[in-house]
Amino acid sequence: MIIEVNMKTLLLGILIITAIIALTYLIVILIKVGKLVDNLNKTIEKNKTNLDNTLKNINDISENVRDISDVALETTAEAIILKEGLFDKVDIVKDIVNIASSVFLKK
For 26, phi and psi rounded to 5 degrees? Predict the structure, then answer.
């Protein structure tokens, strides 16, 4: 018994097998996506009241964040000013010490 296989039949067979494998993976992925969406819906339903409260209070939350950032900005600015003033005073003290040491330590 001789079985003849031409290229057209071979390629068609490979194409059909590949399509079946791809369709199987697609079905598995769709099942997993369906489960994921179902879990998301359950989670949202469980936390509906918390989400509603958070959305209602989002304006207050953003105002609090703005106030905190304003205070942090002012504190940082004051710290920079104090640092510059401190460095200026340290430079003055260094100059005084250098002058005093040059006067008293001259040989």
Answer: -65, -40
